[in-house]
Write a sequence for this structure.
């Protein structure tokens, strides 16, 4: 009986351990997290040490043009616990640290205006924060203390695929600077006791300084694209395609120019992904509702903050913004919009999970899933079809192109409103005055003075812009101008226009 009882207990414990295992990530009975049996706190410290050494060693490398062979270089440094003449002593055990394509990634960081000193300050000066939600892959996610960067563990195949992708990624950055693809800042590998843990440093799409009232992971698929009840129970859940369609049946309203520029960017990005046979990627969408306020005590707009035109156009979603200002010029992937209730939104966008190549396993997965369900609705699909379905969903479901009706005041005046300036003021209020004062000193005056700069200084400040003055045109002349415009920009009868939402009323 005792033996039976012991076996039962062992079975229960084994079952509990299985519940705490996801991929290479494990949580023991004490709550300690490990990855490939390496405690994550020790892994985090070793990562910081390795990255600091890798970035610091680049300072002595002369800057030059990027060459094709730079994408294939791998540098390895030994970190014995006792230390060497070039590495410090530490208590994390002997390990080796590999840096992939260091010259190429230095170029990428410069392209994104990230100074080496700022990068090191974010990654290496303070402990990283480990995200408790590992995701479906069981990866470990670390976030820099200033929320600017994410370090994610990736599988061998993903790291290998990224190395092949880098030359095409480089071309896309030069040809499409407003790309929504992930911003890669470094690829590294921690090696110890026969274990290889590969690490990818990326941008953090959703800044913690701005509250996200909604968050979506969208693939353009409908098969099982509902967030689980467990996910929905979280304070900030990540919802999926069917959840979005249920909550926002009319999509987000943006004006014509913003819509066309955004779709052009998405089309170019999808073309790059399609050329590398990449599929199963998502569009991560973070929504900050300016009119819902901020549960953390952030500012709200009062009636006095709004222009006369905004008040007059109440109930006309998508019209209270400048035609040339709805896409943020400084931060790609940020767009100003309205929902069907007319609430003003700041939407953060970025394509994620691009390291899924359509290999044999994915082809088999699509085959057996399509037997059980409509093959065109499942997320795993060939790259050409996946890209087209992805774009169609974003064009028809996520965003709706809005034009004010002919003869309305906003139509006559070209939609010239204060919305973008208000957004800039709103975002600036979320940043402390000291942060604004110290911004210029990052990497310049701060380094010269030798003083420590707060990590918050890294976050960009969006300055308020003044409202341009203009004279109201009389209705008759305004209508004449609009008729001329309509004749000029009338679409060809052979060209199919996406759905436009025409707002009625003045």
């Amino acid at each position: 009986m005792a033996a039976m009882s012991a076996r039962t207990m062992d079975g229960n414990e084994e079952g509990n351990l299985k519940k705490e295992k996801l991929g290479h990530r494990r949580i023991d009975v004490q709550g300690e997290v490990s990855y490939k049996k390496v405690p994550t706190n020790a892994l985090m410290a070793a990562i910081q040490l390795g990255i600091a050494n890798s970035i610091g060693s680049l300072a002595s490398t002369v800057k030059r043009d990027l060459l094709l062979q730079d994408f294939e270089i791998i540098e390895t440094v030994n970190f014995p616990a006792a230390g060497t003449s070039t590495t410090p002593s530490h208590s994390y055990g002997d390990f080796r640290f590999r840096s992939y394509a260091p010259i190429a990634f230095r170029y990428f960081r410069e392209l994104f205006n990230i100074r080496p000193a700022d990068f090191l300050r974010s990654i290496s000066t303070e402990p990283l924060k480990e995200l408790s939600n590992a995701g479906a892959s069981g990866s470990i996610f670390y976030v820099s203390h200033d929320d600017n960067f994410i370090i994610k563990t990736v599988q061998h195949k993903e790291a290998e695929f990224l190395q092949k992708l880098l030359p095409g990624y480089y071309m896309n950055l030069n040809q499409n600077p407003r790309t929504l693809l992930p911003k890669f800042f470094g690829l590294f590998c921690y090696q110890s006791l026969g274990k290889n843990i590969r690490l990818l440093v990326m941008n953090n799409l959703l800044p913690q300084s701005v509250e996200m009232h909604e968050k979506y992971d969208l693939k353009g698929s409908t098969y099982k694209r509902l967030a689980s009840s467990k996910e929905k129970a979280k304070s900030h859940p990540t919802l999926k395609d069917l959840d979005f369609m249920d909550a926002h049946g009319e999509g987000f309203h943006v004006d014509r120019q913003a819509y066309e520029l955004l779709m052009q960017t998405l089309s170019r990005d999808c073309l790059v992904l399609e050329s590398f046979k990449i599929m199963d990627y998502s569009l991560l969408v973070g929504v900050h509702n300016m009119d819902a306020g901020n549960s953390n005590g952030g500012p709200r707009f009062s009636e006095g903050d709004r222009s006369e035109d905004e008040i007059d156009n109440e109930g006309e979603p998508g019209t209270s913004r400048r035609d040339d200002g709805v896409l943020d010029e400084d931060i790609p992937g940020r767009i100003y919009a309205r929902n069907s209730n007319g609430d003003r939104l700041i939407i953060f966008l970025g394509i994620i999970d691009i390291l899924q190549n359509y290999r044999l396993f994915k082809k088999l997965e699509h085959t057996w899933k399509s037997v059980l369900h409509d093959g065109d609705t499942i997320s795993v699909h060939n790259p050409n079809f996946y890209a087209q379905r992805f774009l169609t969903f974003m064009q028809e479901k996520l965003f709706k192109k809005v034009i004010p009706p002919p003869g309305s005041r906003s139509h006559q005046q070209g939609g010239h409103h204060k919305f973008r300036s208000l957004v800039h003021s709103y975002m600036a209020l979320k940043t402390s005055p000291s942060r604004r004062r110290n911004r210029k000193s990052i990497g310049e005056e701060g380094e010269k003075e030798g003083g420590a700069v707060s990590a918050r200084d890294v976050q960009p400040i969006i300055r308020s812009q003044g409202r341009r003055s203009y004279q109201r045109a009389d209705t008759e002349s305004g209508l004449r101008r609009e008729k001329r415009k309509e004749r000029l920009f009338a679409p060809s009868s052979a060209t199919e226009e996406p759905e436009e939402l025409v707002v009625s009323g003045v």
